[in-house]
Specification:
Shape: elongated
Structural class: mainly alpha
Largest sheet: none
Strand content: under 5%
Number of strands: 0
Radius of gyration: 36 Å
Amino acid sequence: MLMDGQDYLDQISATTAPSGPASKFDLKNIMSSKLFRIIGASVILLILLIIVGNILSSAANKGRNLAEQLEVRLTNLTAMLDEDCNTYLKDANLRSYNSSLSGILKNTDTQLTEYLTEAYDFTTKNIPAGIQEEETDYIEALKAELEEARLNGLYDRTYINSISTEINLIIALEENILERISSEKLIDILEQSISSLTSILESYENFNNS
């Protein structure tokens, strides 16, 4: 039996048409697949590593900046102790404490400078200008305070309070640096300094309470 043209086209359409509903993009199945979970976990881990790396890098840079600030402060304070305080102090015990403190600061400053030079090719010329300016203003304000006390005949008493405060501030700065570094050499330098400063601070406090 012969088919007309329309019957023939209908038969072809019937044989080529999909037997079931058209397949759909199943996002739920893809997201629940093992491969997708592995890829997702890898991406998250990579992001976390980048974040942690940035945090550690930032902490290390901050530790370096604080170490450079400490170096400048030690240098400036030692110079003031040797040039001004040693000249104007009247009490023999205070002069002895002053010399001991100067020696502690010089020792720490020398070790710290050596470490910074080895680790970062440090020189005083490449200390950030902001740190230099801040520390210069800081030491000048301290000198002005002591000079006013000298003019009023209160140098020794003011010296005890001011220098005790400075020792505490240096210890706090060193402890701040310790929280941000991993170098065993620098840790050793700072821990020795804190121990020595804590000991000399007791001498100042005992004198102040006597």
